[in-house]
User: What shape does this take?
Amino acid sequence: MSEIPALARVFSYLSLLTVGGGMAAFPELQEQAVHVHGWLTDKQLIHLYSVGQLAPGPNMMMIVAIGQWAGGLAGALVVLAAFFGPTAVLAYGVAAAWKRLESWPWRTSIQKGLAPVSIGLLLAGGLTMAKGAVTGTLTATVAAAVLIVLLRFKINPALLVIGGGAFGFLVMQ
Amino acid sequence: MSAPETAPAPPAVVPVTLRRIFTEFLIIGGTSFGGVVPYLRGGLVTRTGWLDDREFVEMLSICQSLPGLNATNMAVLVGQKLRGPLGALVAIVAMCLPGALLMYVVGMFYREHGDHAAVTGALKGVAAAAVGLILSTVVQLGRKSLDGSADFIFVLVTVVAVMGFHVSVPVALLGVGSAAILWHRPKRAAP
Assistant: This one.
């Protein structure tokens, strides 16, 4: 039985939830991919997302791995098209109009109103991940250290993620 | 770094080729480790001069208020500006290609070897670090764009709805989003 139609459906739905970034869709990604369709486990999802932070380009590329597991190469391609297609078409169609609405007073209201919601969704995504990823003192220390370093110093976050991996490799086996 | 130029480069007159768009976004898509925005600026403003700084900031703010990732929305908008629909298509494909290939291979590797002790240890560390990274983004965005205590309440309501009451993301987005937009509604000009 083919998972392709389900992949297309789920990822095009998730696409439209990525307001303010991919993480906004994370709780729903977990719900659909883990609980509804069983394409992978909670732990695998967290691992793939985290490793995905080391890949260049758009930071939700871990969806390719989910597509590949559930439906091979075709699954990976369908997931890519479904996840990036709808928002690309929307951006293509709406951006020009949005730019013309510069003097429309509600434009500022929409931007200001969406800001706290997208931050809330990002935080909810982060906390959803933390539930699975922060399991004890060591992992909590790593998360807190990365948070503090990133807030205080200008440093490439990918380096800290690699550092977390090295620490885990040495200490958390 | 080269010496600062006295005058900005003249705007391109010859239309940019699709191959050129592909190459540039392939470079950005293949090198943007740790967050794509600085690499976008480096490629689109500094290296190619396709956008000036003002245009770049404006496009980025449009991308941030639309659904979709900044990286791919920017690719679409810049591709569109340079060469219309084909330009947009070429740009987004090139932007996604390197990361997608990498994660395809990583996904297969992880499926085979993800449960080895050494890999599991490293992944635990990587996942914990990723949590720290997300939280730092929350703090940085919050400092920049939260306006007044009402905004903090909107953040809190969103988090509690999604985490505590398992309200689905679209419902939270529409519900809290409309309330927040109304809260920030345009002020009537004082008489």
Q: What stands out?
A: Chain A has seven helices and no strands. The mean pLDDT of chain A is 89.
